[in-house]
Amino acid sequence: MSTDFQRAREELGRRLRELRVDGPHGRLTGTDLARRLGWQQSKISKLENGKQTPSAEDLRAWAEAVGQPDAAGELCARLKGFESHIRSWRRQLAAGHGPVQETWNRIIGETRTLHVWENFLVNGMLQTPDYARNVFQRLAEFRRTPRDADDAVRARMKRQEWLYEPGKRLNLLMWEATLTAHVCPPEVLAAQLDRLSGVVGVDTVHLGIVPSSAPLRLPPANSFWILDERLVAVENWHAELWLDDAETIALYRRVWDTLAESAVYGAEAQQVIARVRRGLSV
Q1: Are residues 109 and 219 in the same domain?
Q2: pTM of the complete model
Q3: Using one digit for the tens of pLDDT, what is the confidence trace for 153-190?
Q4: For 123, left (φ over 0), alpha (ψ -120 to 50), or beta?
Q5: Which helix (H) or strand (E) holds 222?
């Protein structure tokens, strides 16, 4: 768990304790509050010590129980402020990949310019339906989440309409290893590589491939998305991080610009894709 996230959760816990101790009807003990809420006393302790993340319903109930209902808005704002940064896959995928893809459709729909670095998969904005289906099926099996690959694929394909809207721009860098990752059968990967080669030259897509042999000023590290210089999304195994402070966004943009120096574009990018395509046993 990130230090920033834990610090924010601990600060929220201290605020909860303040409300309990300084209520309008006098100090409440943790046991008294637990009895009013019908909770285990251990939950009160965990929330106040930053050991458990409350829900918005928990916070509203707390504010009511300590006689300070007007504090609910402030508490929920604090929760939204730090939960927006760490979006647990366990929570997000409780209903499957489809709803997550629909959320991304809305966010991308509000975006004009994307700067993306991919180091492990072909980017979703350019995936074929069959490639995307294989990815969703493997992830659902691994995470033991609802199997809704068809819904997720439909949502992802719908998002790709963004590429053909005037004024939109996808600036995409991909590590060559993304082209060779066999997360699907060879024939599906071959079709995916053909799709990538075909988008080179599309006026809304600026595609760069970083060859495996290219000198790098930085390690490839995590994939990430920069949306209109207002938000960075970074995907880890446990969660998706949404980072919106200006300093962090500027840092990721410097990373993107530095990696872009090692990329090839246009005909050279097509040559890299074609070389990988010829190596497939289809």
Answers
A1: yes
A2: 0.75
A3: 999 999 999 999 999 999 999 999 999 999 999 999 99
A4: beta
A5: none
